[in-house]
Structures are given as C-alpha cells and as structure tokens.
Amino acid sequence: MRSVSFVGRRLWTISLCLGAVASAMVACEERRMPERTIRAVPSRAPAPEATPKQPEIEPKADQARAFASPSASAPATPPATTSAEPSSAVVVEGEAALIVDDLVDVGPAGPATAHERGVVLVTKADDVLVAKRGELASGPNPGRTAITPLDRERKELAPYGRGPAVAGPFAYWVSQGRLVRRRIDGTGSLEVLATDARPSTRVVAAARAGARPFAIYVARPATPEDPPVARMWIEGEKATRTLTPDGAGASSVALADQGTAWMLLSIDGRSGMTPLHRPRFPFNR
Fold it and tell me: What is the CATH number of the domain that holds 177?
C-alpha cells in the first residue's frame, strides 16, 4: 500500500509540474502576441506643432535708413546719351596708325630694319636704302599704309646679313670687320667707327636729345683663347669702352630704354650655359 501511494504521489507531482509548465508557456505566448501585433502596425509620428509666429517689430528710424536700398538712397543716374555718328567714325582728330594687314613687297632679301620712315636696308657696297612708307592711315575708314618698294637687283644685297641699328639720322652696322655708320637719307660718306668688330654680329645704337649718340657692338677677341666682348663707341671719344666684365664674354647685344638710363643686355652663348650681363648707364655718360 505504501508503494502504491508513493507512486501515486509521484505521478501527481509530475502532473502538477507539467501543468505549471504548460500554463507558463501559454502565458508567455499571450505576452508575445501583443508585441507582434504592435510591430506589424506601422507607427505614426505625431504631427509637428505649429511654431508660434513671432511678432513683427517696427525698425527704428536710424535702422530704416541704414537698411534702405541703394536705389532709394542714391541719386538717380541720368540716362546715357547716344551719339548720332556711327561707332566707326569715333576717331580722334589727328590720330593716325600704321596699317599693313598683309604682306608688302619691300625689295630683294637683305639686312633690313623697320623704322618710322619705312624699312632701312644696307647693301654689300655699304649703301643705305630706305623703302619709304606713305602717309599714316587715319579717318573713319583708314586704309593700308603704302610702302614704296625698292627697285634693286638681288645680287646687291646679302640675304642673311644683320639689319642695321637706326638711331637719329644714322644707320649703324658691321661691315668687313668694322663698325660703320651712314646717314639714312643717302647723303654723306661712310664713317668707320671701330675696326675690331666681329663679323655677322648685331649692333645696337641710341641717340637722345642732350646726350651723345653711342653704338654698342661685339668686338673680336685679342687672342684665339679669349672670348669676344661687348664694346661701346661714343660720339666724340677716341677710344671705345669695354662693357663686358673681366673673364666673361659676349656673343650678342641688346639695348633697353629705362626712361632715365639705358640697360645693356649681352649674352655669352655657350654650349652648356649662357650667362646674361646687364650693365646700366645714364644718358649723360
């Protein structure tokens, strides 16, 4: 009897535990169902509350003046007046220009330099030729500026020579190892200024009121080991001046006007490096 009752109590205990577990599972399932339902329904955010409108504040008198529009405070701009003349006719009286706009025949190929009088050339015989220009173009419809071509034989000029430097009434150039000059109007004879000029090199010259005319050229070296140098010839001086620093050389020269002085630019052409020298000197030297 004791064993039967013990078995009965054990069965009753197991049944009670199973019932409690089942009840707990049902309760958990019931608690989960509302959560699933809530997640399934999309949430709606509450409508934003309307921001209360700020009361408008009347600006003070000084603030109103400070923030006034420029068009209201600035005086009215008078309307632009229109001219009855066409735009092409707006030309300053007396103004003229050099107009070419195309190739112009000057003459046979030779050492040439553009000048205010036209194109200045030198011949193999050391003559100076000028292909004169006509009147400068002006007026409402200016035409081309005329250039009078030279009637010369091709053999009279060297096609690959250096053009002369024109300063004042003279043209300066190198001829047969000499620095020479001649008047561009064709009058006067050839003047030899120096006899040590390097052939086929450039010459620069200048002439200013109140200053003596001068010319700068490339001189031949004294010995084959020495480099050529830049030298200056000045009107009225017996000897030329050497402008290249000691130990340096010069293969070409140029001149720049700086208002109250001149600046000489000379280069020493080399295979690896080309130095540039630029001495400066005033007009009254």
Answer: 2.120.10.60
